[in-house]
Amino acid sequence: MPQNGHQPQHRADLSNLPEDRRGAELAVIVPTFNEQQNIVTLLDALRSSLGDGPWEVIFVDDASPDGTAELVRELATADRRIRCVQRFGRRGLSSACVEGILASSAPYVAVIDADLQHDETLLPQMLEALKADEAEIVIGSRYVSGGDIGDWDAGRARMSRIGVRLSRVLVPAGLKDPMSGFFMMHRSVFDRSRARLSAIGFKILADLFASAPEPLRFKELPYRFRPRNAGESKLDSVTAWDYAMLLLDKLVGHVVPVRFVAFSIVGAMGVAVHFAVLTPLIRILHTPFMEAQALAAFCAMTFNFALNNSLTYRDARLRGWRWLRGWMLFVLACSVGGVMNVAVASFIFKSYGAWVLGALGGIVVGSMWNYAVTKFFTWGRSGT
Ligand code: GDD
Ligand code: MN
Asked: In angstroms, what is the span from residue 113 Cα to ligand 2's centroid?
């Protein structure tokens, strides 16, 4: 009988069920955003690499406007090894992988991109290595001998190398390609790391290594990174910000939520905007102080909203009408926060006569209020 509380206590007798009803042994998780043109090619590639073995493929699609999910579901009617998890109002490669893994019961899980840049012919070899217990996680690697980054331009290659170097605070030195998005692991690796995963941004592998309670036994298999099959990369300048947030979350996330750190950085930039508006209004246009102050605060709040929407809450980014609604809620919430700021500050000032302490107290209480309220009401996040 299993001793561990996480294991099922009651084991059903499954031995006399027909073999063709058995669940998949390997789940291949494919995060997708606008990959419609790659789906059929990828499925063909998976079929020829994995053959008739007990595998399934789970596409985790973030409501792609190009109809990726619709196509996957259509193909799934002809092949029940194909499944689709669709998410709405959310984005993120890492969190998509996590949800794909959670949607499967397979004892082995792989993650692979939809655009055929990763070499799917390695999958059987990865599975064999896991079954032979050579490792508990096997990584498709561009940086071990025999591997290659393909025809990346110098800029992207440099970015990747910087990323690898930075990741050294999180992952073991022996791991050559911690930024790889292509790997296979025993389910227990995921289960052990799950509670501590940050699931921010693109780098799910680095996250897994950093979240593991004990060092992972890994193996790297070389492959050549191919050119993208169709469509375009989703990597953009903000991916670097996401990566910084992942590193920060791993380093200080247990003390202070990384979103609050991001929110505070944006808030500090907002103060600069405030003065950039206030100064010319008073100095040049001779606007009365109260009016100038109100206008400056309004501009700073709008700036903060826009920046938080595209950075801090990038995964829950509001667009169109929702942007407008979110902006109104944000300005409303922060106005209340402003009143609280002044109230707390003057209370401390009156009680202790210390104006610096009063100002700081007001700022801390006001920004915590702003953070908590806008997180929930503006971006609809109740968890992290
Ligand atoms: N569900 C979901 N949500 N999928 C996404 C999202 C998202 O927000 N963003 C990207 N994807 C999917 C893409 O559709 C693709 O299947 C895969 O994630 C990788 O995205 P690309 O845009 O092709 O990334 P890349 O080629 O620049 O970088 C990839 O390869 C590198 C090397 O292995 C990523 O996997 C990197 O993490 C990896 O370092
Ligand atoms: Mn790609």
From this structure: 6
Yes or no: is domain 19-252 CATH 3.40.50.1000? no
* Residue closest by Cα to atom 32 of ligand 1: 180
| pTM of the predicted structure, to 2 decimals | 0.86
Q: How many CB atoms lie within 10 A of CB 42?
A: 23
- Answer for the pair 126, 26: CB distance below 8 angstroms, yes or no: no
Q: Tens of pLDDT along 262-272?
A: 999 999 999 99
Sheet of 183-186, strand order? 82-86, 55-61, 26-32, 108-111, 183-186, 137-141, 218-222
Q: Which residues contact 73 (CB under 8 A, 6 or more apart)?
A: 84
Q: Is 180 in the pocket of ligand 1 (CB under 6 A)?
A: yes
Are the C-beta atoms of residues 137 and 211 closer than 8 Å to each other? no
Q: What is the pLDDT of residue 9?
A: 64
Residue 187's H or E segment, with its range, is helix 187-193
Pairwise CA distance, residues 33 & 317, whole Å: 15
Domain chopping of the chain, boundaries = 19-252, 258-377
Query: Vertex 26, ends 22 and 28: CA angle to 5°?
Result: 125
Contact of 96 with 69, CB cutoff 8 Å: no
What number does the ligand 1 atom closest to the CA of 205 have?
Answer: 37
Angstrom CA distances, 272 to 3, 105, 261, stand at 58, 51, 17
182 lines ligand 1 (CB under 6 A): yes
Query: Which residue ranges of the chain lie beneath pLDDT 50?
Result: 1-3
pLDDT at res. 133? 96
> What pLDDT score does 236 carry?
79
Please name which ligand lies nearest the alpha carbon of 225: 1
Residue 360 alpha carbon to ligand 2 centre in Å: 46
